[in-house]
Amino acid sequence: MQSADDPERLLDDVTESADLRSALGRMSRELPDAEQMARLAGRLGIANPPPVDSGAGRLGAAKVAAGAGVVALGVLAVWLSTRGETSGVTAPGADGPAPPPGVSAAAMTESPSRRAEAPRIAHPARELDAGAPRESAPLSPATNAEPVVQAAPLAESSASPVERDVQREGDSIARDAAGSGVGPSRSSAAAGTNEPGGPAKAAPRPPPTETELLRAARLTLDGSPAQALGLSERHRSEYPNGALTQEREVIAITALVRLGRSGDARARAERFARAYPSSPYQRRIDALLPR
Amino acid sequence: MKKGSEGASRRPEVPSFAEIFRDHMPFLWRATLALGVPPSDAEDVCQEIMLVVNRRLGDFDGRSLKSWLYGICLRVTSDYRRSARVRRERATDQIPDEGFAAPQPEHVDALRAERRLRQALDALDYERREVFVLFEIEQLTLREIAEASETPLQTVYSRLQAARAHVRAFCRMMNAEEVPRAVG
Questions:
Q1: Looking at chain A, which residue has its C-alpha nearest residue B17?
Q2: Which chain A residue's Cα is nearest to B120?
Q3: Which of A14, A199, B36, B76 is deepest in the core (most CB within 10 A)?
Q4: Does the beta carbon of A59 lie under 8 angstroms from any beta carbon of chain B?
Q5: Facing residue for A36 by CB, picked from B15, B43, B76
Q6: Per-residue confidence (pLDDT) for residue A64, from 0 to 100
Q7: Chain B: residue nearest A24 by CA?
Q8: ipTM over 0.85
Q9: B31/chain A closest Cα distance in angstroms
Q10: Please, which pLDDT band fits residue B127 given cuts at 50, 70 and 90?
């Protein structure tokens, strides 16, 4: 949107440096992919954006295309090049079902009493009071969303609700990694029985991606370094030549340090330094293991 | 019963929570990253933004949705930055999400330019960064930015000018200092 009195935007100003404009363009295209949107939708207890054939807006089309990788960038580039409104698309018609009033509205109303107006996020994964919306996650169709709430009980003694949720998410991915891609969807089993009829039923889940495994490992690193280590080992076995190997090693070494296994951590750090000389992660590993 | 938190809104101008998520979350996400939240924390911060949206949707008067949403985004990201835990962990917690496969040669220049811009933004005063990001990337009007950040329009304008001057100078300086690309 352009107001008549506003200066021209740098991106549109041909007298500006081409490098700067190209960099701005790249930052403008940094939108969440379909996985990330689905995960957020799950965490918030919202149905996923409707698929493109239901006549939803441009975002729906972009979401479906995103699964095809390169195609997504093309779609987004075309979409952004028709920039007139870069925030928000229309087509409110095909609205996904909001969280059923019975549970989540009440749960969401509850949360203000546990949180200040402008919430303090000391450590997002630890201190967010995300208990309410996550409890409602099983009520939304789990098309692409990770199931957050698990059937199996957890040791819940002293963990905060958020930490439990983080653990569940890590467990969920860990369990998927164990028995991935086989049999009926775990989402319907784990997510409970209250899926409203609506957009597509959950499809069988593919094995977790490298990114998912390592994200889960990072999430559990604070609460359970042992689990983080397990997840990074799973990454090592399932993606022996993965693109995220260096990142995984950093997580594994961090987990070993936090488990008090400094000998193992040092040995692994030494192997890392030999395998990846002049790695951008070397400084971080050095910080973990002061000499 | 909390208005606006269930199903379709009673007030025609106010979208539902699900609509706001579908139509605006991608852009709030983008803004979150551009404002300096690391990718590893973006999802948590975006969830927090939406939780605040949900809590306050009932009080939203339906005017200027963008200003309202980005106002929440600014406050939540500001709180994130100020948290002590983030400061302590910043040195060790920066594990990027994306893999680090070697970039194609034709992308190297673009990546370098993007990195320079991000460094320039990291070096900016936070208020100036907010204005720059909201204007240049999120494409809000100056008036919308003034509303979102609760600052006078003239202040927003001067912050934008200052931010632009800084970014331009920073990028020029970085450009000048860079080692010439190796031949071959």
A1: A98
A2: A20
A3: B76
A4: yes
A5: B43
A6: 44
A7: B137
A8: no
A9: 9
A10: very high
Mutate to test the interface with B, among A104, A117, A123, A239 (most CBs of B within 10 A): A123
Decide if pLDDT at B136 tops 50.
Answer: yes
* Long-range Cβ contacts of A72-79 (<8 Å, 24+ apart): A72/A33, A72/A34, A73/A29, A76/A29, A76/A31, A77/A29
- Chain B residues in contact with A239 (beta carbon < 8 A): none
pLDDT band for position B83 (cuts 50, 70, 90)? confident
DSSP code string of A213-257: HHHHHHHHHTT-HHHHHHHHHHHHHH-TT-TTHHHHHHHHHHHHH
pLDDT of residue A259: 86
Which residues does chain B have within 8 Å of residue A43's beta carbon, measured at their own beta carbons? Answer: 43, 47
Instruction: Please enumerate in sequence order all residues whose Cβ is within 8 A of that of A8, keeping only pairs 6 or more positions apart, or say none.
Output: none
DSSP state of A103: I
Gap from B85 CA to chain A (nearest CA, Å): 5
State yes or no: pLDDT of B17 exceeds 90. Answer: yes
Rounded Cα–Cα distance for residues B97 and B76 (Å): 21
| Residues in chain B within 8 Å Cβ distance of A120 | 79, 82-83
Which residues between 152 and 211 in chain A have a beta carbon less than 8 angstroms from any beta carbon of chain B?
210-211
**H or E segment to which residue B158 belongs:** helix B153-177
d(CA B3, CA B55): 10
Low-confidence ranges of chain A (pLDDT < 50): 51-163, 166, 177-202
Amino acid at A287: A
Ramachandran angles phi, psi of A135, nearest 5°: -60, -30
Euclidean distance between CA atoms A288 and A269, whole angstroms? 10
Alpha-carbon Rg for chain B in angstroms: 19
Taking phi first (over 0 means left), then psi (-120 to 50 degrees means alpha), and beta for anything else, what does residue A183 get? left
Name the nearest CA neighbour of A169 among A206, A210, A223, A123.
A223
User: Which two three-digit tokens encode residue A264?
Assistant: 């193992």
Question: Residues of A with CB below 8 A from B75's CB?
Answer: 118
CA distance between the termini of chain A: 55
Residue type, A186: R
Query: Does the predicted TM-score (pTM) go above 0.90?
Result: no
Q: A128 and B47: CB-CB below 8 Å?
A: yes
Phi-psi region of B180 (alpha: psi -120 to 50; beta: other; left: phi over 0): beta
B17 neighbourhood in chain A, CB within 8 Å: 44, 46, 98-99
* pLDDT per position as a tens digit, A186-227: 433 343 444 344 344 445 566 778 888 888 888 888 778 888
pLDDT of residue B13: 72
Report d(CA A23, CA A154) in Å as an integer: 46
Confidence at residue B26, expressed as pLDDT on a 0 to 100 scale: 97
